[in-house]
Amino acid sequence: MTIVEPIDERRTTERGLPPIWEWWPMIEGTLKQEVLENPSAPLRRAVVRRICELCEVQFVPTAPTRLTEPERAYLAGWTRRSGW
């Protein structure tokens, strides 16, 4: 018998992505740069897949995914604070 752990819905947003404060510190610099170049653009599927891998989320959204306004504000604060 195989036991499958249920998806922890508290770890994902309504779009299926984990909260940005969980994955942003862990994501690779090249992907950070890509996201920061145009934070309003849809995220590439490879970026979404990597976010889910980093946070150990089994579900990967299939619809185009964009950062929300609060997520973009988080990035703006992060770039100011880190000097990125």
Describe this protein's structure.
This protein has four helices and no strands.
Kindly report the average pLDDT value. 85
* Number of beta strands: 0
H/E element string? Answer: HHHH
The tally of structural domains comes to: 1
- What overall form do the CA principal axes indicate? globular
How widely separated are the two ends? 49 Å
Q: Which structural class do you get from the secondary structure elements?
A: mainly alpha
Report the sheet with the most strands, covering strand number, pairing sense and barrel closure: none
Contiguous low-pLDDT stretches (5 residues minimum) are 1-10
Helix content: 40-55%
% residues in beta strands: under 5%
Radius of gyration: 14 Å
Label this structure with key terms.
single chain, 84 residues, mainly alpha, 4 helices, globular, disordered N terminus
Topology:
Blueprint lengths: L19 H4 L5 H9 L7 H10 L14 H14 L2
